[in-house]
Amino acid sequence: MDILVMIAEGFIGMFQKGGETFMGLVTGIIPTLICLITAVNALIKMVGEERINKFAQKCTKNIILRYSVLPVLAVFFLTNPMAYTFGKFLPERQKPAFYDSSVSFVHPITGLFPHANPAELFVYMGIAAGITELGLSLGPLAIRFFIVGVIVILIRGIVTEIITVRMMKAKGIDPTTNKSMSA
Questions:
Q1: pTM of this structure
Q2: By percentage, how much of the chain surpasses pLDDT 90?
């Protein structure tokens, strides 16, 4: 009989802990995320979606901007997973590299801009808990994550573009026209 009571108490206790965690989110990070999302949407409306799109198109012309500034803007303004739609400004040979850069940036941005990918926030908050327990500030960690993230996405984008072009050529596809080179 005692074992059944222990199982029942453990079962309900699990949901009570889940409720406590949920209430912590409701009174903690959720209002912050809602305010951030509202602010970003307001910024997009003020700047104008057309201007953001034009700037994104200009960023595609330069390899450094294409795999640093463009993914950062995409993840910041459109958030995950809509950020990948900025790839529409790129030719086919550059789309895999842009995707690689963008998807690699959804974690490093969360320390400074948690609205960009709230799902990744839980990973960051786990790391942050250890840092705050040591009595250290989270600001330097968030900035370092961001800077290292930009460097990593730039490297990944360039390497992935090189690999994509080589693979296209190996398959007999002209990377500039996306058509068969044997025709």
A1: 0.70
A2: 30
